[in-house]
Amino acid sequence: MNLKNIGLYSALIGGITAIIGALEVIFVFTGTDSWIPADLFGGLALLVIAAVYLSGNGELISKQEEGLSFALTGTILTMVFGSLYTLIMGTDYLMYLLGEADEFLIITELRPEILLLVATLPLARYLIKREE
Amino acid sequence: MAGEKETVIRVALIGNPNVGKTAIFNNLTGSRQHVGNWPGVTVEKKTGRCTHREIEMEIVDLPGTYSLEADAIDERIARDYIIDEKPDVVVDIVDASNIERNLYLTLLLLELGANVVVALNKMDIAASKNYEFDIEELSLLLGVPVIPTVATTQSGMGELRDAILSAAVRREKHRKVTIGYSDDIEARIKEVEELILTDTYLANTYPPRWLAIKLLEKDESVMDRISSSPKRDQILEVTRRVEVNADTFAEERYRAIDRILHASLAGRRDHALTTSDLLDRVFLHKRLGIPVFLILMWATFQFAFTVSEPFMVMLERVFGWLGGLLGDPTTPLISLWADGICGGLGFVLVFIFPIMFLFIALAILEDSGYLPRAAFVMDRLMYRIGLHGRSFIPMLMGFGCNLPAIMATRSIGDEKDRLITILINPLMSCGARLPVYVLIAGALFGTYAGSAIFSMYVLGIVLAILMALLFRRFIPGLRGKPAPFIMELPPYARPAIKSVLLYMWSRAVVFLKKAGTILLGGALVLWFMASFPWGREIESSYAGILGHTLEPLLAPLGFDWMAAIALFFGFLAKEIVVETFGILYGVGGEDAITGAVAAHMTPVTGLAFMAFTLIYLPCLATLGMVKAETGSWKWTGFMVLYQLVLAYVVAGIIVLTGNLITGVL
Fold this sequence. Notes:
Strand order of the largest sheet of chain B: 2-3-4-1-5-6-8
Helix content of chain A: over 70%
Shape of chain A: globular
Number of strands of chain A: 0
Radius of gyration of chain B: 29 Å
Largest sheet of chain B: 7 strands, mixed
Helix content of chain B: 55-70%
Oligomer: heterodimer
Strand content of chain B: 5-15%
Distance between the termini of chain A: 16 Å
Number of helices of chain B: 30
Structural class of chain B: alpha/beta
Structural class of chain A: mainly alpha
Shape of chain B: elongated
Radius of gyration of chain A: 16 Å
Strand content of chain A: under 5%
Order of helices and strands of chain A: HHHHHHH
């Protein structure tokens, strides 16, 4: 991937992150029941991550290496939150096994943050290669 | 002195923080160490001994310092020791991977006329950065021996000992100055120096050139040192006349460092952006830095609370099973076991898991190099509101435990800055409060429990900042501007699993020790108070009587008598708040403690209770430390008073606005 493509890809990820984050916040107030959970703090966290991604687009698209800062940090933050929700999914399953939860549905446990983690893997791969 | 039989060579170790000074001290002294305090202050003083080539050395580990300006207690101790005690050799430990900043202290030591040996440490890290030192050239330019070392592998320790012995033997009283300033500055230094030489006492007590430079830099503690000199007025008159901008000296020293490194170091990359550079652009970003810090802290508390849940459930079941082993608590002895030990102490022990997970996350953030960046980002905000940048480190430590955090304020030089930091530190939510939040939030906030806990930490930070601002503006004796702050940002690193687990375990051990002492004692007292007179309803037990006496004070906040007694005993240690609920609900015959909490509190009163627990008082041990560090009952009393008032006001606001929102009012 060249810098311009990274810029376009991180703009895409940033845009999706911003939309999901905004919906998580909005659903808190509308009470909407959806696959995207109503989560005020989780939504705000996604909006911050989106801001990180989108802040570097200008530099990346104009092929300035400094713009990688935002793609790199955005990727790290997405991975932190994706890993967090994967761990929470695991503990929810444990709670279900312990009889503390009535049900365990993968569809409600598979938060968008986990899917975003998967979507950032190409960026992560590029950044790891660059580091090496 | 050295060279004579049976003399002891006195060696001082000095260096910037995090250069491996302690590792070198340990390598040199082994187990022959003594830990005490520096005279008149509570800063730790470590001394040790070693014998090399049949010559005894006494080694003093000076506090880590970036300069010798005497702004902070640590810097003052280091400088006064070198000036007043005149050690035979000063070993300056320099981080080779960060040499530019480290050499600044070296130049200050050379100006001070110390008999310096440079230990060029972390050579392995420098090599990984492709740094190639010309050691001989560096030694020639500095005019002192330079010994490459790697403290972690003990490499270069024998050579360092040899260099110390040689330096002690060859000690030169008047070392040739190799680091010169520009001609204009040198002329002014010379003028002041010549005047100093006319006072025999000053000339014999202090290096005249150093004294002249410090006077031109307007160093207040040096001004004090010449206060009794008969030449004082003349010296001050000349320093006023030949005035030099204080920053000029620092700039010229850095120019000298640049010249030295240009001649003695190859391989410094000025070069492609490193990963550290890239990350710092975002983590230190003036707009994104703080939001990123906040979401990482939120993730930390989500992790600590949610991931620990199943483990807590499992341990709770173990204690439930143990508590039921002796049957129904129909006799005092069985009740002591079931309600006091298993229901009280056992119930608190369950909270070891969120504590362990919290410290795993904090250790990862610290070891990765992120936490110092968080301090840097917050410093900008803190300075704007009148707090010293160094305050953030003790405040960050307060998330772990307020007691060492208050001790850590010793690194703050300015007394006002230090006092403000001590006064607001208990508002930083320590690990002991976490069980209270976990219990209440888990019982009342469901999937939002993690966010509710996070909000307590944010509330603590916000209140700390607000109180600092108020103190700075309105309390006589605390008014003024904070001193500027220099901070080291270590390189980012992958956290080592072993180091993370050790850090987590050290915090867990603190909790377990507490459980075996004060929490066990608290459980026994509380069980006795809740169970006696035996056979009565809990409402008319000693605990019930005390709780009902306190209840009117807290009733406006919606807290019942059990909450009142929990807060009363929570003054000893915050975990006792949870223990109290465990015992009172257990003795009262309620099985599920979280269910009982939900029955006794609404989410609004629960949130108010969490806020009250956060603010109302630090634990007894912390209060003792505040008295020791401020040396004042007046300030200790002031802290107790303001925290009690603040807790009441904040909890009251939460109850009032919460009830308005939920429509209770």
